[in-house]
Structures are given as C-alpha cells and as structure tokens.
From TrEMBL:
Taxonomic placement: Bacteria, Bacillati, Actinomycetota, Actinomycetes, Streptosporangiales
Pfam families, per database record: DnaB_C
Origin species: Nonomuraea typhae
Keywords, comma-separated and alphabetical: Primosome
Name the UniProt record assigns to this protein: DnaB-like helicase C-terminal domain-containing protein
Top-rank lineage group of the source organism: Bacteria
SMART domains attached to this UniProt entry: AAA (SM00382)
InterPro entries: AAA+_ATPase, DNA_helicase_DnaB-like_C, P-loop_NTPase
Matches recorded under PROSITE patterns: SF4_HELICASE
Domain SF4 helicase: 149-404
C-alpha cells in the first residue's frame, strides 16, 4: 500500500488537511520525493489561500503525479502515515547506529537512539481538545482539589517566598527563565531553587554548563550547613562548622535523589538534554547557562536564531515530558536601562520572554549584599519586585520587607530568613 500517495489523494478528495495537520505531518515525513513535493505544495496552498488545492490545481503543477482512489477514511490513513513515519525513523536510526559501530564510534549509539525516541514521542503526541460543555464534573473536581491546597502552592516551590506567592510554584509543562547580567547571582538562585525542590520531597536534575559539579556541591553543602563558603573551599572550617557540615551531608543523604550533571558535551543540545532527562526521570529540571547550548539546526552558537530554536524546544520539551523546566541565561548589559533589567535585556533573543511562562530577573543593587529579583513578565501573575540580602559567611539569604532603598531602609525585625 502506498500510504503516502493514498493520504495525499484523500486529503485532496475531501479537501481536509485537519487530521494530518493535527499530528504535524510535514514534507519530511514522505520518503518519496515527488509525494514530498506535492505535500509541500498542498500545505503552502492551504496557508496562502485557506483551502486545500483542487485536483485541477495539483495536476497543473504536478501533471505526472498519480493520484489514487482511497477507500479508507482520512483518520485511518493519518494513523497509517504515523506508523509509516515511525518505521522510517527507526530504520534510519538502526542503520545509523550500525554505521557508528562499524566506524568505531559505539559511544555515540545511545545518543542516536535517544534522538529517535524523542522524535517518536513528538510525532505520537495526541492533541488535547476538550469540550467545556462536557467537562463540568471534571472541572469541579479540579477546583475541589485546588481548595484542598488551603493556601499552599499549586506547584513545586522555588523557596523565594515572594516569587512563590506570585507564581504559585512551578508546574508540569512550564518553562521558567531566570535572567541577569554576569555575576548577578543567577547560578546561586537556580541552585537555591533546586535545593528547595529537593527539600520539599522532589527529585531535581541540575544541569550546568558553567560550573563544575564540585563547585556546585561545595556551594550547596555550605548553604545547607550554614557555614562559610570560603572556609569550606580552603579547608579551614572551625570544629563547629565541621560538625555542621557533617550533619548537613547526612541530611542530604536522607532526602530524595538530587541529580547533578556538568557532563556538558553530552547534554549541550536539546536532544542530549532530553536523553539525560529520560534516563534519570527527575520531577523537575534546572538548566544553568542555557545561552551556552548548541543549536541542532546548525545556527551559530549564541545567535538569536539558535536561542530562539533552543527556547522553543525547551518549552515544547517541558510540555511533552510534563515536568517543569527552570533555566538561567545571561542578560545583555548593553540592553539594560542603567542597572535595571527590562524584558528585552535577555541576552540576544526575545524568545526567552515569549516562550517562558515566567521571566524572573536577578540583578545587583548599589549595596553589594543586596540583590533585586523581579518578575519581568509571567503568564499568570503581575510584575513585581522583591529584595534579598545575600551573605556568604556564614551562608544566609534573607528576603527583605519592601524596598530597602526607599524610606527608612531595612527593618531587621521584619526581614524573614528565606528558605532555611
Ligand atoms: N564564597 C563567596 N563569597 C562571597 N561572594 C561570593 C562567594 N561565592 C560567590 N560569590 C558571589 O556571588 C556572585 C556570583 O553568583 P552566581 O555565580 O550565582 O552569579 P551568576 O549570575 O550565575 O554568574 P555568571 O555570570 O558567572 O553566570 C558573585 O557576585 C560572587 O562574587
């Protein structure tokens, strides 16, 4: 059965592209080059004129392309096309894997196989249409579940109280972006959020492109132990701090898994990252320094187009894996208004703003110990600002009440110790 030709014939006969468009059939799905060309013509025609071209219009452009009489209905043919696509993808991946082994590159086989699994998951995605007139019970049950939260968060907490109140934690399918100029505290904020997820009973995966695993866990251990980060690094802890450190490490061991990876070369691309996530299966994913990732479509690393592809891909990935993804990236100081962040300060690409469910800025202030955090934009929350005092010796992060640079400054009694 020539599924490709049958599908094209049926789409033209019924003048209906809907079911095929819903599962995202593109010209790349067609093995036969002439069918691929006709498919491209049909989709372009639909985009331009709003309807599927007639047989006459197709014959005019492709006089030798043979259309068939398809007895089966469109949904059946679309399903067959999907199965056909899966077989093509699997065959290509197995052939590539065999070639890699022959060429002595067996270490790349699992990467290639994971790539095809990701592609299969993408083309298996079912759309989630609902008819509100038919889902009253379901929706009431959903709201009853929300009422049980009793003021608690809907999603996984970030640990930053004001941010959590505004965003209600991070939920499956969300992409949350932390942005800031160099050395503003993006990596630390992301680490604090990872720790908070872990402390709340979740298994996080922290992927870092900038810091080594050792740098990350030294920070984490000093935070958890509330000891001097500098003395921990130089091996000069006091006996009391040493005891605190040992206790903190014991606490960490009693928590759910905390996965950390700096295995940069294998997760530099979206496919590599997805493979890592599928292997570890964490509850929430954190990616530090997304602007250093490589685009799989060949755009130069760090270019606006590469970053657009990467943020689009990350948002789609969050939705497909149904887990929250929280990322950090760099803001362009040249695009900052004085010291203040704006939504277009996000380094190199506006797609961070467009694709993120929430864009959170981290910036330095005139006081080196005080950081400003701002919700620059969020799908379900208003913009707001909040201030934190960061202390590294001993490590402590405190959310401040109000704006310490206005009025009478910081009210120490009102400053709440953040998170730990
Ligand atoms: N042990 C420490 N003592 C004092 N300050 C520290 C210590 N460790 C980190 N810092 C400060 O924290 C800030 C860096 O934090 P962080 O790495 O989170 O920032 P970043 O925005 O991720 O940086 P980058 O631009 O490198 O990505 C710097 O201002 C640094 O001086």
């Amino acid at each position: 059965m020539d599924v490709e030709r049958l599908l094209i014939s049926k789409v033209i006969e019924e003048s209906d592209l809907g079911p095929a468009a819903e599962i995202g059939i593109t010209k790349e799905w067609f093995a036969d080059p002439s069918s691929a060309q006709v498919w491209a013509m049909i989709t372009e025609h639909k985009a331009k004129y709003g309807n599927v071209p007639s047989i006459g219009a197709v014959r005019k452009d492709y006089p030798t392309y043979k259309l068939l009489a398809a007895e089966e209905g469109l949904p059946y043919l679309v399903d067959q096309m999907r199965t056909h696509r899966h077989l093509v993808l699997q065959e290509a991946a197995v052939t590539d894997a065999a070639n890699l082994i022959v060429r002595g590159q067996a270490d790349r086989v699992s990467e290639r196989l994971h790539q095809v699994l990701a592609e299969l998951a993408r083309s298996s995605a079912v759309s989630s249409d609902i008819d509100l007139s038919q889902t009253s019970e379901e929706r009431l049950a959903h709201y009853a579940e929300l009422a049980k939260l009793d003021g608690g968060l809907r999603g996984i907490p970030t640990g930053f109280p004001a941010i959590d109140r505004a965003l209600q934690g991070s939920e499956p399918g969300q992409l949350i972006t932390l942005v800031g100029p160099p050395k503003a505290g993006k990596s630390t904020s992301l680490l604090l959020m990872t720790k908070e997820a872990n402390d709340s009973g979740y298994e996080p995966l922290l992927v870092g492109f900038e810091m080594s695993n050792r740098e990350q866990y030294e920070r984490l251990d000093s935070i958890r132990a509330k000891i001097s980060h500098a003395r921990l690094r130089s091996g000069t802890l006091t006996p009391k701090e040493q005891r605190q450190l040992e206790r903190a490490i014991k606490v960490q061991a009693s928590l759910p898994s905390f996965h950390m990876t700096q295995d940069a070369s294998s997760v530099m691309t979206l496919t590599g990252l997805r493979a890592k996530i599928e292997k570890i299966d964490p509850d929430i994913v954190f990616v530090d320094g997304v602007y250093m990732m490589q685009d799989e479509e060949g755009e130069p690393s760090g270019s606006p187009q590469a970053l657009t592809n990467i943020t689009r891909g990350l948002k789609r990935m969050a939705q497909q894996i149904q887990k929250p993804i929280i990322i950090s990236t760099q803001a362009l100081e040249s695009k900052m208004n004085g010291k203040k962040l704006r939504t277009d300060s996000v380094g190199y690409s506006s797609s961070f703003f467009q694709d993120s469910d929430a864009l959170i800025g981290v910036e330095n202030t005139d006081d080196p110990a005080i950081k400003r955090m701002i919700i620059l934009g969020a799908r379900n929350a208003a913009t707001m600002e909040t201030f934190y005092r960061w202390c590294w010796d001993p490590v402590e992060f405190i959310e401040l009440e109000g704006n310490p640079f206005e009025g009478e400054g910081i009210d120490e009694d009102k400053a709440a110790t953040y998170g730990w």
